[in-house]
Amino acid sequence: xxxxxxxxxxxxxxxxxxxxxxxxxxxxxxxxxxxxxxxxxxxxxxxxxxxxxxxxxxxxxxxxxxxxxxxxxxxxxxxxxxxxxxxxxxxxxxxxxxxxxxxxxxxxxxxxxxxxxxxxxxxxxxxxxxxxxxxxxxxxxxxxxxxxxxxxxxxxxxxxxxxxxxxxxxxxxxxxxxxxxxxxxxxxxxxxxxxxxxxxxxxxxxxxxxxxxxxxxxxxxxxxxxxxxxxxxxxxxxxxxxxxxxxxxxxxxxxxxxxxxxxxxxxxxxxxxxxxxxxxxxxxxxxxxxxxxxxxxxxxxxxxxxxxxxxxxxxxxxxxxx
Length: 322
Ligand code: ACO
Fold this sequence. Notes:
- By secondary structure, this protein is α/β, with parallel strands linked by helices.
- The chain has helices spanning 21-25, 32-39, 52-67, 91-99, 115-128, 151-154, 215-234, 251-261, 272-275, 282-293; strands at 4-13, 18-20, 43-45, 76-80, 105-109, 133-140, 160-169, 174-181, 189-190, 212-213, 243-246, 303-310, 314-321.
- The chain is 32% helix and 24% strand.
- The site of acetyl coenzyme *A has 23 residues, from α2, α6 and α7.
């Protein structure tokens, strides 16, 4: 029997607290008008007492209950995150322990905002080689990585988690993919630098724990490399795609990509107005909302494209038939 990865359920969870652009004007020199017109973001969810693993456990439990699969049936749990609770244990191992998925291997994927796309790609290889069920979750608490006095980054990001449960199927779902990285441009976005405080270490680094980004470079990268990547994966099939689910960083980037590809803007789903940039969680949050509203139906044979891009630099697209 051929084995292909099929998405059979999706789920999301965002923390309760909503921080509006107006709220941010009380913390820094910014305005609702600037944030909305430059990014499309109106508000974001921010944790008050939860960590990344807490968000991911809720998503994992929802995925199991929606699909009727038991935790013991899972063969793998992959969590894409750039804001884990710890360097070790991984968030994936924390989730594995808390939901009782005793037969699942578990590890985190560090590919910033491309992490979910990397995760789905890896999951499909595990399923091809014998796994039957697995979770891919993108989960972030970026609020802990932000410098809340830096208006150029603090207004852009939000917290949240979402994911999918995949099962082995005889019908191919992933039609094509191209996942990429360029480490020579790694300084365009950095976050979470760990200072070495060993008594034997003499150097002081200028790198920071807080997220730092050369916004313009990432903007240009999205319009050049990401557009080329989508074209490579979708080829002549652009017109036949039902929906494009791109990483939710900036409304203007999506508008420009839709123009460059000559694909109607309506085919690009967006929700960054309500969540901001949730990094690895952004594509699965968008996907789960579309499933909930019926725009996207699992098992419908609709064609969708997942496209992630971000720190690393990393990027990639996957074309799926649902
Ligand atoms: N409020 C008010 N003014 C601001 C703010 C703010 N929050 N932030 C910056 N400004 C000011 C700047 O100081 C600057 O002022 P100056 O001209 O007096 O110096 C002016 O606004 C313009 O700043 P720019 O940085 O040039 O603004 P730009 O139009 O490039 O927009 C943005 C910035 C929104 C970050 C844009 O570059 C962008 O979206 N880049 C892509 C980001 C992205 O896609 N990230 C995804 C990857 S994230 C990941 O992997 C985790």
